[in-house]
C-alpha cells in the first residue's frame, strides 16, 4: 500500500502560533472573543455541535484548526432562508456541508418510511430540526448566501450519494448528489486527508475548479481528465456475456490466491542468476478510469444498475482502485480513487485533538441522547472488512483497519475519568465498527494492495488475515488497570467467526467485559439470506456460544448472548422467516426490538432490493434473481415473525402460515408457532387450540420483554 505523509507535519500548518479555541465558534460574539474578523472555513452540519471525537464535525473542525485555519460551525440552521447561513459572515475559503453523523433520511424515517418524531443528535431529542436531504438544502442555502464561495460536501449522506444511486424513499434512482446540491466538490469516506489537502491548496491560491486530483473526492467535469486512459466497465464484467478479466484482475487473482506458495528447491535458488535491470513498471490501475453506465441508463435498466454497483464496489481498495466516471447528461461525475488510510500516528493525532468532550455551552442543560450514549465510550479503530452487504461502513470507512495506539486509547480513558462530568468509573465501550478487528490486518502487503475481495472473512476467513487477538487482549488488560476504572464494557458488535479463531479473546471478553448480556448479530439462521448478507452460517454462532458459555461458567457468571436478526433482507423467503421464528422459539428467545431491512444508498443489499439481482457475482440479464420482500404486507409478515410471541402479530402470522400451507404451525402445542384464533376455533390438522401461556413454552422463555429493555 502506498503511504501518505503524516497529516500532522508541523510545516504544513498555515498558522502555528494560533492556540486552539475552547470551542469552535458558533456566533460572532465567540469569534470576537477569539479576535477573529472572519472564518477561513465554515462547517454547516445537521447535528448539534458536540466537541467530541465521535461527532464528525468536531473531528473535521479540530483537524482544520490544528492546521492553522479559523473554523466556525453553523449547527442545525433554520433552512428556509439564507439568513442562518450568514450568521458567521462570509468564509474566506469555503463552506463544508454535511447532514451530520447520520443520513438525514434514515434519521427522519423508519425502515417502513414512517416519520420519526425524535432525533438523538438534537438537544432534547427533538425531531424536525434538519431538513430531508439536508446536504442538498444546506448547500443551496450556502450558495444563496454567498454565490462565489465554494461548497464542499462531506459526511455519510454525501458519501453514499456520490454516484447515481437507488433512493428508497422516492423509490427511484437519483443522480449524484453533486448535481442537486450545486456544490463544487464532494469528499467521500473519512475526510481528514482530502479536506486538509483541499484547504491548503485553496489557501495557496488554487481555484476549486483546478482541484482535479485529490484522492477521496468527487467532482463534475465535462470530460474525463486529461492524462487518464479509460476502460469501459463492460470490459470487466459484461452484462449478458462474461469476458475474460484483463490484467488488473489477473494480479489480484495471483495475490489473493488460496493456493499455498509454491515451494522452491533451495539448490535451484542458490544458483547464480543474471541480474536483470528493469524500469519500474507502471501499475495497471494507475491513471486508469472506468466508465460506468450513464445515469440515464442505470435509471431505467436494473441489470446495468446492478452491474455499475458491482464495479463500484470492486474499486474501493485505496491500494489499487481506479478512478470512476459516470456520465449524467452532458457532464460526468468523476470519482478519484479513495484516500489512503490513516497511519496509527495519524489516528492518534486525530483522536488527540483538543476536544472539550461535551456539547457546546449554548445548549445549556439540554440532553443530547447521542452524546449521552457515547460520552463514556472510546473508538479504538476505523474500517471494517466484514463486508456485510446491508451495511455502509465499507463504502464509507473502507475495508482497511486503521487502529490507534494503546497509549492514545489509554490517554483517552484517563481524559474521560478526569474531565467528563458524571463518570462513575465504567467505560461503556472500547470498540469501533467491529469490537474485535483492532490491529487485525492483512498479513501480506502485496495482497492487501491489490485485493478486490468484498470481504476478508466471507465465505471463509482469508488465509492472509491475521486472527491473533493479542493486541486487543493486551489493550483490554492495560485499560482495566487504569486507576479509577471499575469496569470496561464491550458494546460494539463482536465478529464471532473471527473471535472463535482465538478462544483467548472470547475468554477475556466473557471473564471481564460483559455486563450480563452480549449483543451479537447472526442476522439470520438460513443460508438464503445469509449468503446475500455475506454473513457466516449458524455453525460459527454455535461455536462462539459454546466458548462463551464455557468461560462464563468458569467465571461463575450468568451471562447471555442477545442475538440480533434482520427481517425482509433480500434473499429471504417467507419460509426462511418461519424457520428463523421456530429457531427463536426453540431457543427460548423473545426479541424486543427488531429491525426490518433498511435499504441505505449504495449498499450491495440495496442493489439487490432494487434490481432483484445479485451483484456479489457477475451480473447479466440471465444471472441469479434474488427474492425480495418489497410489499408492505410481506415486510410486515417478516418482521412479525421475529416477534412471534407478540399477540398483536398473531393475525398476520396466522394468515401468512395459512398462505404457505403451514397451518400445522398454528395451535397451542410446543411445536406450534402461534395459537389458533380463539374466536374462530381451531385450524389445521393436529391443532389442539391455544390453551394460554401456561401450557405453552412461552411461559418458559429465558427473557421477559422487560429484562430485555433494561439490558439494551
Ligand atoms: S486478508 Fe483481506 S485484503 Fe488480504 S488478501 Fe485476504 S481478502 Fe484480501
UniProtKB/TrEMBL annotation:
Top-rank lineage group of the source organism: Bacteria
Molecular functions (GO terms): 4 iron, 4 sulfur cluster binding; catalytic activity; iron ion binding
UniProt biased composition (Polar residues): 694-712
Domain Radical SAM core: residue ranges: 370-646
Required co-factors: [4Fe-4S] cluster
Cofactor detail note: Binds 1 [4Fe-4S] cluster. The cluster is coordinated with 3 cysteines and an exchangeable S-adenosyl-L-methionine.
InterPro entries reported in the protein's UniProt record: Elp3/MiaA/NifB-like_rSAM (IPR006638), Methylthiotransferase_CS (IPR020612), rSAM (IPR007197), rSAM_horseshoe (IPR023404), rSAM_sf (IPR058240), UPF0313 (IPR022946), UPF0313_C (IPR024560), UPF0313_N (IPR013704)
NCBIfam families for the chain: SAM_YgiQ
Name listed for the protein in its UniProt record: Probable Fe-S oxidoreductase family 2
Amino acid at each position: 500500500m502506498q503511504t501518505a505523509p503524516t497529516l500532522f507535519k508541523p510545516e504544513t500548518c498555515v498558522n502555528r502560533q494560533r492556540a486552539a479555541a475552547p470551542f469552535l465558534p458558533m456566533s460572532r460574539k465567540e469569534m470576537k472573543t477569539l479576535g477573529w474578523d472572519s472564518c477561513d472555513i465554515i462547517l454547516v452540519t445537521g447535528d448539534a455541535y458536540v466537541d467530541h471525537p465521535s461527532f464528525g464535525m468536531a473531528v473535521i473542525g479540530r483537524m482544520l484548526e490544528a492546521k492553522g485555519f479559523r473554523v466556525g460551525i453553523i449547527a442545525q440552521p433554520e433552512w428556509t432562508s439564507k439568513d442562518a447561513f450568514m450568521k458567521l459572515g462570509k468564509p474566506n475559503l469555503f463552506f463544508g456541508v454535511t447532514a451530520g453523523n447520520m443520513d438525514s433520511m434514515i434519521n427522519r424515517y423508519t425502515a417502513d418510511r414512517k416519520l420519526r418524531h425524535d432525533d438523538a443528535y438534537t438537544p432534547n431529542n427533538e425531531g424536525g430540526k434538519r431538513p430531508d436531504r439536508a446536504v442538498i438544502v444546506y448547500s443551496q442555502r450556502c450558495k444563496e448566501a454567498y454565490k462565489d464561495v465554494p461548497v464542499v460536501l462531506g459526511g455519510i449522506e454525501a458519501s453514499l450519494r456520490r454516484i447515481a444511486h437507488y433512493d428508497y424513499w422516492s423509490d427511484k434512482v437519483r443522480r449524484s448528489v453533486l448535481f442537486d446540491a450545486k456544490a463544487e466538490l464532494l469528499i467521500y469516506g473519512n475526510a481528514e486527508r482530502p479536506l486538509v489537502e483541499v484547504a491548503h491548496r485553496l489557501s495557496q491560491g488554487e481555484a476549486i475548479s483546478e482541484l482535479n486530483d485529490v484522492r477521496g473526492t468527487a467532482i463534475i467535469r465535462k470530460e474525463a481528465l486529461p492524462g487518464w486512459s479509460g476502460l469501459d466497465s463492460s470490459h470487466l464484467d459484461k452484462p449478458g456475456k462474461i469476458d475474460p478479466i484483463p490484467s488488473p484482475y489477473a494480479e489480484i487473482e495471483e495475490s489473493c490466491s488460496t493456493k499455498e506458495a509454491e515451494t522452491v528447491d533451495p539448490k535451484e535458488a542458490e544458483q547464480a542468476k543474471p541480474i536483470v535491470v528493469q524500469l519500474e513498471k507502471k501499475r495497471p490501475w494507475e491513471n486508469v478510469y472506468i466508465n460506468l453506465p450513464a445515469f440515464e441508463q442505470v435509471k431505467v435498466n436494473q441489470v446495468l444498475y446492478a452491474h455499475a454497483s458491482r464495479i463500484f464496489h470492486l474499486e474501493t481498495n485505496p491500494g489499487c482502485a481506479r478512478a470512476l466516471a459516470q456520465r449524467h447528461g452532458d457532464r460526468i461525475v468523476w470519482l478519484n480513487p479513495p484516500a489512503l488510510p490513516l497511519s496509527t500516528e495519524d489516528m492518534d493525532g486525530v483522536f488527540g485533538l483538543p476536544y472539550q468532550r461535551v456539547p457546546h455551552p449554548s445548549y445549556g442543560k439540554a440532553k443530547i441522547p447521542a452524546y449521552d450514549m457515547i460520552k463514556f465510550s472510546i473508538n479504538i479503530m476505523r474500517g471494517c472488512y466484514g463486508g456485510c452487504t446491508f451495511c455502509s461502513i465499507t463504502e464509507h470507512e473502507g475495508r482497511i483497519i486503521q487502529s490507534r495506539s494503546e497509549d492514545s486509547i489509554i490517554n483517552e480513558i484517563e481524559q474521560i475519568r478526569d474531565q467528563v462530568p458524571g463518570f462513575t468509573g465504567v467505560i461503556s465501550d472500547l470498540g469501533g465498527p467491529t469490537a474485535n478487528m483492532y490491529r487485525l490486518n492483512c498479513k501480506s502487503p502485496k495482497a492487501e494492495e491489490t485485493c478486490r475481495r468484498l470481504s476478508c472473512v466471507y465465505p471463509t476467513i482469508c488465509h492472509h488475515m491475521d486472527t491473533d487477538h493479542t493486541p486487543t487482549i493486551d489493550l483490554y488488560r492495560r485499560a482495566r488497570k487504569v486507576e479509577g476504572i471499575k469496569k470496561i464494557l464491550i458494546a460494539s458488535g463482536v465478529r464471532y467467526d473471527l473471535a472463535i479463531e482465538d478462544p483467548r479473546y472470547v475468554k477475556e471478553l466473557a471473564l471481564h467485559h460483559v455486563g450480563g448480556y452480549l449483543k451479537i448479530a447472526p442476522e439470520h439462521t438460513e443460508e438464503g439470506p445469509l449468503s446475500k448478507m455475506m454473513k457466516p452460517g449458524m455453525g460459527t454462532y454455535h461455536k462462539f456460544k459454546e466458548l462463551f458459555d464455557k468461560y462464563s461458567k468458569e467465571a461463575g457468571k450468568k451471562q447471555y448472548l442477545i442475538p440480533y436478526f434482520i427481517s425482509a433482507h433480500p434473499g429471504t423467503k417467507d419460509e426462511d422467516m418461519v424457520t428463523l421464528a421456530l429457531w427463536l422459539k426453540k431457543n427460548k428467545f423473545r426479541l424486543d426490538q427488531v429491525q426490518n431491512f433498511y435499504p441505505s444508498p449504495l449498499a450491495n443489499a440495496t442493489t439487490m432490493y432494487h434490481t432483484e439481482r445479485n451483484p456479489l457475482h457477475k451480473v447479466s440479464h440471465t444471472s441469479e434473481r434474488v427474492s425480495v420482500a418489497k410489499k408492505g404486507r410481506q415486510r410486515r409478515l417478516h418482521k412479525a415473525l421475529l416477534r412471534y410471541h407478540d399477540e398483536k402479530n398473531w393475525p398476520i402470522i396466522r394468515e401468512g402460515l395459512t398462505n404457505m400451507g403451514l397451518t400445522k404451525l398454528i395451535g397451542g402445542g410446543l411445536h406450534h408457532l402461534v395459537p389458533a384464533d380463539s374466536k374462530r376455533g381451531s385450524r389445521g390438522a393436529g391443532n389442539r387450540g391455544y390453551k394460554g401461556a401456561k401450557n405453552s413454552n412461552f411461559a418458559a422463555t429465558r427473557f421477559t420483554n422487560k429484562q430485555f429493555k433494561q439490558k439494551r
